């Protein structure tokens, strides 16, 4: 299954960053009034791309907060929180395939992290909405 392509309400965060960068460019242009407007716009656009790459989209749905983590290839993780604790997590591999091993529901389950080449980096467990580390003997 491919990554979700539909627009989520969290995209407003990216739009906010873009508008902020546009306003910053306009202010800098007004202050400097020079021939470097194109350079300033280019720099602000690069800054926008840097922040938008790791933007977080949040959607409040009563007591549940949805958080979308973006990476190089689009959505990496879609997490929901309920009353401040992890409720569910969906994860995608670097190649865009939905991770069949990551399954967190009702605060319990496993989340798999991947290297850029798609090999498994590590697994973490959640219990009761929090990271779970069994006692080491």
Helices, strands, pairings?
Elements: H1 11-32, H2 37-53, E1 56-61, E2 64-71, E3 74-82, E4 85-91, E5 103-105, E6 108-114, E7 120-127, E8 130-132
Antiparallel strand pairs: 1-2, 2-3, 3-4, 4-5, 5-6, 6-7, 7-8
Helix pairs in contact: 1-2
**Residue ranges: pLDDT <50 for 5 or more in a row?**
1-14
Mean pLDDT: 71
Please tally the β strands and state the result. Answer: 8
Rg (C-alpha, Å): 19 Å
What are the secondary-structure elements, in order, as H or E?
A: HHEEEEEEEE
Q: Can you give the helix content as a percent range?
A: 25-40%
Q: What share of residues are in beta strands? A: 35-45%
The main β sheet shows up as:
8 strands, antiparallel
Strand order of the largest sheet: 1-2-3-4-5-6-7-8
Structural category: alpha+beta
Approximate shape: elongated
Question: How would you sum up this structure in a few lines?
Answer:
By secondary structure, the chain is an alpha+beta fold.
């Amino acid at each position: 299954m491919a990554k979700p392509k539909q627009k989520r309400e969290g995209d407003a965060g990216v739009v906010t960053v873009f508008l902020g960068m546009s306003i910053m460019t306009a202010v800098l242009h007004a202050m400097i009034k020079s021939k470097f407007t194109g350079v300033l716009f280019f720099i602000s656009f690069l800054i926008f791309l840097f922040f938008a790459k790791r933007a977080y989209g949040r959607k409040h749905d009563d007591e549940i907060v949805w958080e979308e983590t973006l990476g190089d290839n689009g959505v990496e993780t879609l997490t929901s929180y309920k009353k401040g604790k992890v409720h569910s997590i969906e994860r995608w591999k670097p190649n865009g395939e939905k991770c069949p091993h990551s399954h967190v529901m009702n605060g319990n389950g496993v989340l798999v992290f991947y290297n850029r080449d798609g090999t498994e980096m590590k697994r973490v467990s959640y219990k009761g909405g929090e990271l779970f580390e069994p006692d080491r003997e």
